[in-house]
Amino acid sequence: MNFSQEFLKTSEITGEEPYPQAPARWKLWTLVGVTVGWVVLGVLLTPVGRTLGLELLPISQDMGTSFYAAGIALLLVALGLYLRKAHQALGALEYRVERQRRRLKGMATDLEAVRSLLKVTASINSRMELSSLLRIIAREAVRTLDADRSSVMLLDKSRTVLRTAAAYGVDLEMIKGAEVRLGDGVAGWVAQYGKPRLLQGPVEAREFRAFKPKDKPIVSAVSVPLQVGGRILGVLNATLTQEGRQFQDHELRLLMLYANHAAVAIRNASLLKASRERARLQAILEGYVPPHVAKALTQDPRGWTNLGEMRDMTILFADIRGFTAAVDKMGPETVRSFLNECFTRMTEIIFQHQGTLDKFIGDSVMAFFGAPLAVQDPGILSVKAAMAMLGSFQKMRGSWMKRHPVVQDLSLGVGISSGQVFVGNVGSAKRFDYTVIGQEVNVASRLCAMARGGQILISENTRRLLGSRMPVNHMGDVHFKGLNRSVHVFEVVLDVH
Known about the structure:
The chain is of the alpha+beta class. The protein has three domains: 3-121, no CATH class; 127-272, GAF domain (Beta-Lactamase, 2-Layer Sandwich), CATH 3.30.450.40; 299-492, Nucleotide cyclase, GGDEF domain (Alpha-Beta Plaits). The chain has 14 helices and 14 strands. The protein has helices at 3-14, 25-45, 47-51, 61-125, 130-145, 172-175, 185-193, 249-285, 291-299, 323-330, 332-352, 378-401, 439-450, 460-466, and strands at residues 149-155, 161-168, 179-181, 197-200, 220-228, 231-240, 309-321, 356-361, 364-369, 411-427, 432-437, 456-458, 472-478, 487-492. The strands form two sheets. Strands 7, 8, 9, 10, 11, 12, 13 and 14 form an eight-stranded mixed sheet that branches. Strand 10 and strand 11 (432-437) form a beta hairpin. Helix 4 runs antiparallel to helix 5, helix 5 packs antiparallel against helix 8 and helix 11 packs antiparallel against helix 12 (378-401). The N and C termini lie far apart (108 Å).
């Protein structure tokens, strides 16, 4: 095993770099001692000793010289081995110093990037508008990695297709509507498996399913998943298109850290958007149904925001008699105040009896019972609501007569009919209403127009729903224009007390 392999192995296990081992000092001193001794011996074996006036050892001159030369050669070999070992240790030390220098440089770069990241995450976490947040995420990804361009792709509701939601460094219009199926290409692979990819140089098409080459060559690219709690939201991509630099592993780790913060911000913004939409929807619904019904509907709107359905329901119309003639005498401010108070009272009564307010039509109120949530005894509920309306209107008229005598001639008439009608959202792409359509709606409207002030008229279908629980009088059969049948009309008997 060479030094670099041993170095990497030790670094991976302990997390620390090993110190290079220099030759032991005792080896050096031993080599010095042997060298000095051999020089002294050489003096006694060679003619050098005779020149110095020393008595030579009793060995032939030729043998002594050869023996000495061999010893010198061995010493030179030992010295060479020692120097080689020392040179290896010095090279290892230089390698370690260079590696530490690069690490420190990388740490400084990472530290600066983390500082930028903290600023960026503080910025994106303060942005709650989703489209603006996505643009910031794409922009800051480019700045953090010093990349050439970036893009944010989000999974659609089916969680099978990635769509580009924001981009920086490239015209979004050019890639608007771009789709990548889950598992296709680099981004699709990252979204499917939830793992990052670091790519250097041109991408091999066979490496990724349904890979499509880019319009501009890519030098280096990173693609990381946007995920929160193991749930993939999308993919964050960053690319380099200019030669001279490639993304490194530490930059991939940095982008993953950034993507984690970005994913949390995206989820929070999406939740806030959904919450606002639910709150807005609930506020709208509370204008039509009781608050508890509106809350239940917003939890699962799929049951009533469909195209529509046929359903057995009861429809109620209530109209103020004599109001049109009184308008000119009351003045606009009085008209507005009177209608507002009247409609407020009528709405509260409708909600108290589990009804749905359809609309206000001039000085009339339209409501129905049985949608969007089914109710028990819609016929009974509608008649009880009509009786409460008459009583409330009578009290209101009494209080207004003290200030505006003209209202003494006003009264309320009610018409009710039951049967199968269409209920659902009807309208244009910009505006629609949740309403009912059908023959029984027309019957209820005609009965209301026919009713006198203080009178509740109902159809045969509604009478059947009442059974014997409420007294009614048969008023005869009426053939309304536009209907292909006669209508059996009944009057609800009111308690005069």
